[in-house]
Specification:
Among the domains are: about 110 residues, Butyryl-CoA Dehydrogenase, subunit A, domain 2, CATH 2.40.110; about 120 residues. Helix content is about 60%, strand content about 10%. It has 19 helices and eleven strands. The strands form three sheets. Strands 3, 4, 5, 6, 7, 8 and 9 form a seven-stranded mixed β-sheet that branches. Strands 1-2 form a two-stranded antiparallel ribbon. The protein starts with 8 loop residues before the first helix and ends with a helix.
Length: about 575
């Protein structure tokens, strides 16, 4: 039987070696639920076994059913009629299988019907699912929505909604984007007006809403007077609302997309539709949406790693079978080099994904612990701050790296297939189309660079690099010296860019190169750290680190030697007035 967990040695490697014990203890609050819920763990080992069992169930559903049905789902997609979206029958069946296995409340506390899994394990699950069918977004989306409700909604709202999300009875959506408010969400104009009955009422249009047909939606809307102050017109004029589907919201259309065809992307029109305020007014974007989108960005990174894994496997299988010039093309250097680079890039993305998820877990569990134990200060507060900063840095970094990597891997997978990869009959073509959205939605790569450059220039990146450098790499001193030499070039380049006064946009212009350099160094340390546990992983690290100096030097040389030619001339070249 196909099992997309058990056939992935790298995921199994990470599950064995991930440093999760403290997260488990914080998440399980001393294992106090062990006698109350039959599946609650009694200790760290029990929790790890539970994680493996649940992921294996997901791996089996994905391998045996979701992946074989993915071409059909891609070709047929969902349909819209009479204001109702009907998901593809195979998608409906997959959802029912997940619900029957009690997987839809993956990360939600057990008191609401969930499994109380950490984000790190969710990332592994999301990757496995995306490998099977990248358009099966309902699972990950459900976790993002439910986690946001669990963190910010009132107890009454949680009791009303979370059990039905966990059971799979209700689907959900994050309803943020508008025709004139994509990346710039502070431009949102959908109106929210309070009524005398205590409800709020939503009026306006939302666009590009994944699973907009869900029963429950979290809506970003303008609650303050649009003709008022500048703060009311901008981000501070926005609030967050819990909306339950009714006949005062019309699904105007389903988008005709390049990829992820099985996922319905809807345009919604709200006509004085009732909703409930979540949390405080005017915090909709600055607090609640930001938290939700950071979770979603981590999920998209996992989706990208899964797509890349699927594309690589298609290419590797084809290269092993395709004979040219008297031998399988997998034996030819131009092809095995591509395959090796693809494999290394995927494993780099995976180790960064799990490290990011671990930081997010530590941030969230420490925040929960400190709220329940306000008497404890000092070290807990400092740790909470530390992991909040690291999560804030690593989340955009992994979203940028993993999604760009997935696009490159999917591109190379078609190249290895040759002309056959361009044909709809081959999965490589679908993976290529599915990958393309990952570096666009939930914040483009360019926006991720904007979010990551601050931690790079403020010293957060240098701090974590120093921490990684202090580990024991006595098993590979030569590789460590290569990383350290590259680190020196990065530090010099960052100092140069920060001090440069020749053009006011110089640092911003080179942001993506500086973030790439920091990412490269972090990946090198993480892969070298993985090499402590496995000879094979050490070889993966050596291949990655072999090209590290050339990549770092290329960015360093351009930043140091480029005299602002583009900044001085771009307006004339592209005709900006």
């Amino acid at each position: 039987m196909e099992n997309f967990l058990k056939d992935n040695e790298d995921i199994l490697f990470h599950l064995e070696h991930l440093d999760l014990d403290r997260i488990i203890r914080l998440k399980e609050e001393g294992f106090r639920e062990a006698d109350r819920y039959p599946h609650a763990p009694r200790d760290e080992r029990d929790a790890r076994e539970s994680y493996g069992l649940v992921l294996s169930i997901i791996g089996e559903i994905c391998g045996e059913f979701i992946a074989p049905a993915a071409p059909q789902v891609d070709e047929e997609g969902p349909t819209l009629a009479n204001n109702q979206v009907t998901l593809n029958p195979a998608t409906q069946k997959a959802q029912a299988m997940f619900a029957q296995a009690d997987l839809m409340g993956f990360c939600i506390p057990r008191q609401y019907g969930g499994l109380n899994m950490p984000t790190t394990i969710l990332s592994a699950a999301a990757e496995i699912i995306a490998r099977a069918d990248a358009s099966f977004l309902n699972f990950g989306l459900q976790q993002d929505i439910a986690l946001t409700i669990n963190k910010f909604a009132s107890e009454e709202q949680k009791q009303a909604v979370l059990p039905r999300l966990c059971s799979g009875e209700w689907g959900s959506s994050m309803i943020l984007t508008e025709p004139d408010a994509g990346s710039d969400l502070q431009a949102v104009n959908l109106k929210a007006v309070p009524g005398e009955d205590g409800q709020w009422y939503l009026t306006g249009v939302k666009r590009f809403i994944t699973n907009g047909c869900g029963t429950i939606g979290l809506v970003l809307a303008r609650s303050e007077d649009q003709g008022g102050t500048k703060s009311a017109r901008g981000a501070r004029g926005l609030s967050f609302f819990l909306y339950r589907r009714d006949d005062r919201m019309i699904i105007r259309r389903l988008e005709h997309k390049l990829g992820i065809h099985g996922s319905p992307t809807c345009e919604l029109q709200f006509n004085h539709a009732p909703a409930q305020l979540v949390g405080e007014r005017q915090r909709g974007l600055t607090k609640y949406t930001l938290w939700l989108m950071n979770n979603a960005r981590l999920g998209i990174a996992a989706q990208a790693v899964g797509i890349a894994e699927a594309a690589y496997r298609e290419a590797d299988r084809y290269a092993a079978k395709r004979v040219q010039f008297g031998a399988p093309i997998r034996a030819l250097p131009p092809v095995f080099e591509l395959l090796t680079e693809m494999k290394v890039a995927i494993e780099a993305g995976r180790t960064l994904l799990y490290e990011t998820a671990r930081f997010v877990d530590l941030k969230e569990t420490l925040e929960d612990y400190s709220e329940k134990h306000p008497e404890e200060k000092g070290e807990i507060i400092e740790e909470k701050k530390k992991y909040a900063k690291l999560a804030g840095f690593f989340t955009p970094m992994v979203k940028a790296y993993a999604t760009e990597m997935a696009n490159k891997v999917a591109y190379d997978a078609i190249q290895i297939h040759g002309g056959t990869g361009y044909m709809r009959e081959f999965n490589a073509e679908r993976h290529y189309r599915d990958a393309r959205i990952t570096n666009i939605y939930e914040g483009t790569t360019q926006l991720q660079i904007v979010a990551a450059i601050g931690p790079v220039t403020s010293g957060i990146a240098q701090g974590i690099l120093d921490e990684y450098d202090r580990a024991d790499y006595s098993y590979a001193p030569d590789l460590l010296e290569k990383i350290r030499a590259a680190r020196k070039l990065f530090d010099e380049t960052l100092d140069y860019a920060k001090a440069y006064r020749g053009h006011e946009q110089f640092l911003t212009y080179h942001s993506h190169r500086l973030v790439e350099m920091a990412t490269d160094l972090i990946l090198a340390y993480l892969l070298l750290r993985d090499g402590a546990h496995s000879g094979r992983k050490l070889k993966v690290a050596s291949i990655f680190i072999a090209k590290l100096p050339s990549r770092i030097e290329a960015n360093r040389n351009f930043i140091h030697c480029e005299d602002g030619t583009l900044l001085k001339n771009y307006s004339e070249v592209i005709g900006i007035i």
